[in-house]
Amino acid sequence: MKKNIYILFAACMLIVMGSCEPKGFDPKDSDGKVLSIAVKEAVFVSNSMQLSFKDNTTLPLTVVTIPAGVAVTYSNKHPEVLDISEPGVLKPVSIGTDTLTITSADGSLHTNFVVNVTDHMVKANSITVAAEGANVQLKIGGADFNLGQHVTLAPDDTWDPRVSYTSNDEAVITITPETGVITPVSVGTTTVTIRTLDGSNLSRDVNVAVLDKAPVDIDRSDWTVETETHNGYGYMWDGGTQAAPVTGKPEHMFDGHTGSYLSLVKPGGSMNSVAPPVGTVPAFIVDMKEAKPFEYIKWSHRNGTYSNDNGSVGTNAYNYLRVYGVYLEGSNDKTTWTAIAPAEPAGADASIVWIPQKVTYVGGVTSTEDKPHTIMVTPSTYRYVRVKLAVQSKNYGTSAGYFQHPTYPGAGSTSGNTMQIAEFGMGVIE
Length: 430
Hints:
Layout: H1 2-14, E1 36-39, E2 43-45, E3 48-54, E4 59-60, E5 63-66, E6 72-76, E7 82-83, E8 89-92, E9 96-104, E10 110-118, E11 126-129, H2 131-134, E12 135-139, E13 145-146, E14 151-154, E15 163-167, E16 173-175, E17 181-184, E18 188-196, E19 203-211, E20 215-217, E21 224-228, E22 238-240, E23 245-247, E24 262-265, E25 283-300, E26 306-308, E27 311-313, E28 323-331, E29 338-340, E30 353-354, E31 373-392, E32 418-421, E33 423-429
Parallel strand pairs: 3-10, 12-19
Antiparallel strand pairs: 1-5, 2-3, 4-8, 6-9, 7-8, 9-10, 11-14, 13-17, 15-18, 16-17, 18-19, 20-33, 21-25, 22-23, 24-32, 25-31, 25-33, 26-27, 28-29, 28-30, 28-31
């Protein structure tokens, strides 16, 4: 009878349900022997009782003995993993596995437990690339491709969601390591390697092909252009006099010189008694004389000097004098206008066509950009194209983030009173 009672008690301790003494049990029946040592927090895994906790927490133990109340001591094999200097409390030292031994004070019984100290940071277990980014095809002279917009990690609560991007042939493409923006360089195929930065050491490759296609610009020789401003002032001259300006005119966007430019006063700015109200959006309208197809716009920032019979203007590459984003509209009758979306929308307003910058969109830094930017838009066919100069330094980052490029968030600079466009064009990829 006594033997059966002991077996029942041992079974109860294995399932760790707290005190499990059978009715009528008398501890004196054990002849003073310790029959069982168990820990309420332990679970049975792979033929052993195990304790697991994360490396940024401690684990107080609930020890249950038969008979109840037996004094115990604690020891472990790997103090570099586990600290038990406070009896009954496990403290992590490093990530790893240790063996904890709990022994009755009289030395008659001991029980071993496997202790796993795990990383408290959730690491990625997979890199997912959406279909749009799985096989990238680019064109020589075409738009960049933002691979980073199509990459996610699982699980969602990965502690560090960042990844790095590496081009495996920079003769074919280059890529921004932090953001994944791919730029075509030459015809060919290669891969981009995506790597996690959270310690999970995951990676995967994405195929990229650069095709032998080139942009074909529309001939601008017969184009005309007019501006739309808050009071019809037309443009802001730069150099010379108002009657005989060096530059600043709308038609200077078609003269092939990046040192000459259209110059308009920013809403919120003031120059030569012209002060457009905040919230207004100046624009220019290009007339190509007949409806023509196009799938990109070309844009050059002011760069270099310019001279004519009225004088000269010097180089000025201040970032705050540029346009950061525009709205495009097309029309064939100059009455009914249709929005033209960017090929790759970005930010809170999907209608904004962002103008690339070699430096961030914010601030008064300088950057020389002597080559035009080719910016892909939704393929369209129109005679008239209206370009609304929506985003510039004085309103960048305002309206609760409305004017924000996702790569360059932050408050805008208030410097500068004019915005200047050196060259504007359109074309197709053939």
